[in-house]
Amino acid sequence: MRAILTLCWGNLRKRKLQNTLIALLIALSALLVSTAFTVLMNTENVFNDRHTAAHGAHEVINMTRGLHDEQLVADWWSSQEGVNTSSLIPYKPWTGLVFNGEELPNLYLYMINTPTMPHGVNNPLPGTGPEHLTVPEVGEIWIPTSLAYKYNMHIGDELVFTSGSAPAQFTIGAIVIDISHGGPFSTTARIWMNEADYRSTMGSLSTQEQYMLSLRYAYPQQSEEYWQRFEQALGSPFLEERVSFAELSAFYFIMNKVIGFVMSFLGLVMILVALLTIGFTITDTILANYRTIGILKSIGMTSERIIGTYLLQYGLMTIVALVPALIASHFLSDVIIQNSLSFLKSDTAPVPVQAADVAIWTGCGLLLIILLCVLVYASKTRHIEPIQAIRYGMSESSHSRIHRHGARKRLLDRWPVPTVIGWKHVSGNKKSAALIFLLMSITVAVLVFGAVLVTSVYRISETSAQWGYDDADIAIMVIHAEGMDRAEMQSYIQSDPRVHSLNWSGSATGVIAMAEEDDNPQQTFSLPLTVVEGSMDEIGFASLAGRNPALPNEISIGINIARKLQKGIGDVVTIYIEGEPHPLLITGTFQSISNMSNVARVTSDLVEQLNPDAGFIQLKDNADSDAFVQQLNERYSPSIQALKQEVLLDSVFKEAAAVLLIPMSMLALLFMAVTCLIVYTTCRLHIRKETKTYGIYASLGLTATDIRRALTSGIAGLAALGALAGIACGVYALPAVLRGLLSTYGIVKLPLIMEWPLVIGLTLIALAIAISGCWLASRILCRTSLRVLVMDS
User: Fold this and answer.
1) Contact partners, residue 69, CB within 8 Å, separation at least 6
2) Spatial contact of 353 and 334, defined as CB atoms under 8 Å apart
3) How sure is the predictor about 517, in pLDDT bands with cuts at 50, 70 and 90?
4) What element of type H or E holds 526?
5) 3-state per-residue secondary structure call for 193-211
6) 126: which of 331, 409, 584, 751 is 20 to 30 A away, CA to CA?
7) Which helix (H) or strand (E) holds 363?
8) pLDDT tens digits for 635-662?
9) Is 177 helix (H, G, I), strand (E, B) or coil?
């Protein structure tokens, strides 16, 4: 055992740079993998904890059009064994909210007549304010964390609601966690009101009262059986809106899934790099100590004990590297989770991060993988024959191959000396060169992919149609329809010479009956409809395939609806709209991130009771947007709110860009630092090994600076090749993998903005870092005299 410990300590002491590099690679891979798994696991755990605490809904029924008796619906569901139901919650829709003197854009409010807590299912949870919720006090309201945290609202702040005949002012009495309507990137918010305030404020509105009913199943997988029985009792398909758990929870997970995917993918790549480096190092160590190993075998040390030396060495290195990395992963994952799940935080229940189990399993897994790798490579010592090792310092076959006769073509004889130095610096260290190439490719891929992704989300207004939004220059949000003369407004807008087109849009709910099979009775599901009065092409709606509907018997469907129905362009689908069946021809399919592509587009001819709530203006010159928006707001406020399209999108997606920025920046910095260190380490080791050769070059007239430039040029060429591969990976490979992840969210074609000057600039930065690593490593040549260089060390 003492011999094993002595050899192990000698290996650790003699190869400090290589061992430090390997420990760093192990630490980085552990940091990335542990952080990714912690983020993914905790995201779901935190949401499930909050969902359980709120007795959260598995489905929400939204009855907006009076097509069914809401009390009958509530009574039927409340009578079902295995189903818990909430109170029947009345509300009226509202738009128009002013905070600190500014009207907040892109908000759709549900003004709730709050029943006494608890509601049975889908209860709002205390966020900030009272620890126990009952009902709001008179003059006070509860608002969701998604609204409060986004606009920095606090208890006691005043909010002004401007939709009614007169502005209504309320004080924030509590900030609550609203699981079903308060998720990330939400444009809807439930405002919980005292009954007296609701009656006095909402009673004057001519808007029909609407109702919500939340359902929680003891066994969610049985939900379709309940719905079949419910529609049989109802005597018709359910014609109102039905929101599933997947839709309620999806956007709590999407950002952390993207972050987790990127970090876990790169962590696994870094593990591969670490294993390759360990393999290269063990192989080089065996070759360098071939004669020593032969002597040790000749005096009785077995192959198993020699292999045990390597296992002990790398086991100790791995443990030393893992401990700080796994501790750091806890803090890093905490930053990401607190940032991305901020809407689930409260004063009494902060978002917990459970990282211990993940860290332990990650550490044990990495340790096992590394030891197996060491065992595979160290097993090469079994084939070392003591006599051959002592005589030749290598195997006899290798000695014969090296010293066999025959002239070799010397292709480098006619090359300039600096070129020869640079080429030999790379070709003489094939394993190190492969490692530098791989890491350079990864670093550039991370930089390019991260920059393209964040830029594409930040500038989503330029690709809005491909994400499922409109592409109009100006959007008109109808706030107070009763006080608006739409015909006069339309005439005024269309008569303006700056306007190219004006179209209107509203919403409806359709119901689709799935095909009946022998084993399964007929099933139905509700389908949100975007109803357009005018031209969808002029609004800027884009299709993945086919075209937008133009006739009353046509429809375009989201890709997830197409998958669910197993239908495509040219097929016919029957949809119930306002209780009437309509056979419609599918003319196109599209993707939409806002509702996971679970939506369809139809013309206004199909809907009799359409109340357009948005207008879309295309201008002849987009530069006129600011002036025209101001003109419309001055003329028609408070009946409408006119906004530039990018303002509406920024209110949602700048939040996503901010969440992505921290982890992507951290990954970029980590990989750049590691690349620089690896280049520095490998170049320094090679230069030390070849000091005599460089001394000979120096004695022939080359200065130390000339040699440094030659060495750096070789690394620069290798790094440039790696950078080109990294650009291809960052632009094509990583987005392709991410598309697979986003496919379930309704995005099958990732709309990326390729900012080539930024891509080239980041690539040049990565190249400069790699080149600087070699240049710094070669400083040793400036500190060594020529006489020392030509002497045998």
Assistant:
1) none
2) yes
3) low
4) strand 524-533
5) ECHHHHHHHHCCCCCCCEE
6) 331
7) helix 356-378
8) 887 778 888 888 888 777 777 777 777 7
9) strand
d(CA 139, CA 198): 10
> CB neighbours of 16 closer than 8 A, spacing ≥ 6?
none
Residue 281, both tokens:
């190092």
Report pTM.
0.77
pLDDT value at residue 129: 84
Q: What is the token pair recorded at 502?
A: 């004006």
Residue 129: CB atoms within 10 A of its CB come to 19
Average pLDDT over residues 695-722: 83
3-state SS of 702-717? CCHHHHHHHHHHHHHH
Per-position DSSP letters for 417-481, written without gaps between them:
HHHHHHHHHHHTTHHHHHHHHHHHHHHHHHHHHHHHHHHHHHTGGGGGGGGTS---SEEEEES-G
pLDDT over 70 at 393, yes or no: no
State pLDDT tens for residues 81-106: 999 999 999 998 887 788 988 888 87
> CA-to-CA distance for 139 and 399, rounded, in angstroms?
93
Site of tokens 């290996």? 11
For 157, half-sphere exposure in the C-beta direction (CA atoms, 13 angstrom radius) is 19
Answer whether residue 293 shows pLDDT above 70. Answer: no
> 186-230, pLDDT tens digit by residue?
788 999 999 999 988 887 777 788 999 999 999 998 888 899 899
* Region of residue 311 (phi > 0: left; psi between -120 and 50: alpha; otherwise: beta): alpha
- Spell out the residues 6+ positions from residue 357 whose beta carbon is closer than 8 angstroms to its own: none
* Helix (H) / strand (E) containing 266: helix 245-288
Helix (H) or strand (E) holding 756: helix 756-777
- How many Å apart are CA 636 and CA 649, to the nearest integer? 23
pLDDT at 236 over 50: yes
Question: In sequence order, what are the residues at sequence separation of 6 or more whose Cβ sits closer than 8 angstroms to the Cβ of residue 515?
Answer: 522
Q: Is 174 left (phi over 0), alpha (psi -120 to 50) or beta?
A: beta
| CA dihedral (114, 189, 67, 616) positive or negative | positive
Which pLDDT band, with edges at 50, 70 and 90, does 535 fall under? very high
DSSP 264: H
For residue range 144-188, list pLDDT tens digits in order.
998 998 888 999 999 998 766 678 899 999 999 999 888 887 788
Task: Identify the sign of the CA torsion 380, 381, 385, 389.
Answer: positive
Provide φ and ψ at 114, rounded to 5°: -75, 115
* Residues 215, 110: Cα–Cα separation, whole Å: 19
Half-sphere exposure of 578 (CA within 13 A, CB side): 10
* Cis peptide preceding 386, ω within 30 of 0: no
Q: What are phi and psi of 411, to 5 degrees?
A: -75, -15
Contact 657, 667 (CB under 8 A): no
Q: Which of 283, 251, 97, 261 is nearest to 182 (CA)?
A: 251
Give phi and psi for 593, each to the nearest 5. -75, -30
Please, what is the end-to-end C-alpha distance for the chain in angstroms? Answer: 32
Residue 21, both tokens: 């590099």
88-91 long-range Cβ contacts below 8 angstroms, 24+ apart? 88/211, 88/212, 88/213, 89/113, 89/114, 89/115, 89/119, 89/211, 89/212, 89/213, 89/214, 90/209, 90/210, 90/211, 91/190, 91/209, 91/210, 91/211, 91/212
**269, 28 contact by CB (below 8 A):** no
CA atoms of 181 and 192, how far apart (whole Å) = 12
pLDDT (average), residues 69-83:
93
d(CA 318, CA 471): 53
Lowest mean pLDDT across 55-64, 234-243, 565-574: 234-243
